[in-house]
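Hi support team,

I submitted a single chain yesterday and got back a structure, but I'm not sure I'm reading the token output correctly. Could someone confirm the output below corresponds to the sequence I sent? I've pasted both exactly as they appear in my results page.

Thanks,
R.
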Amino acid sequence: MYWRGHVGIALLAYAPVAAAVRVAGEPGLAVLGAAVAVAFATVPDLDHRLPVAHRGPTHTVGFVVATGAVVAVAGGLVFPASGGTDLLASGGFALPAWTPAFAGGVATLSLCSHVAADVITPMGIRPFRPLSTWHVTFDLTPAANPRANRLFLGLGVAALALSVALTP
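Hi R., thanks for writing in. Yes, this is the structure output for that exact sequence:
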């Protein structure tokens, strides 16, 4: 997949989470989660700029879990647990104390969606490297297929829009 497909699949995965967070009365957190989902949707493809193989270590379960944990810890530093963090001094919305864990979870979900999206391409992935050389591919569509990438982006945006529209 290319960036459009990855962002769309991340939004598609995040849409039910956004709905649940909105129902829980945390619309600000739903917005933050959408930003995190989009921001981390293409992180595994940073391997194009690193001296490692494409779909190598950045496309593994280990990378997904470690990165999600780092995001949660970093979130704890940015949003310290104080019973809510006021984002805007002029009376903006407050985020709950569990914001760091939420951000780490959404980052993990977004990274998982990236790895899952690459499974549908002929190149596939090796999700448990270096522990296993097991290769997974469903070989449904080439990563460069513009129709598939636009379709996934459209589905993701529509799913997130529906989840927001259908929740209070």
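A quick pointer for reading it: DSSP finds five helices and two strands in the chain. Let us know if anything else looks off.

Best,
Support desk
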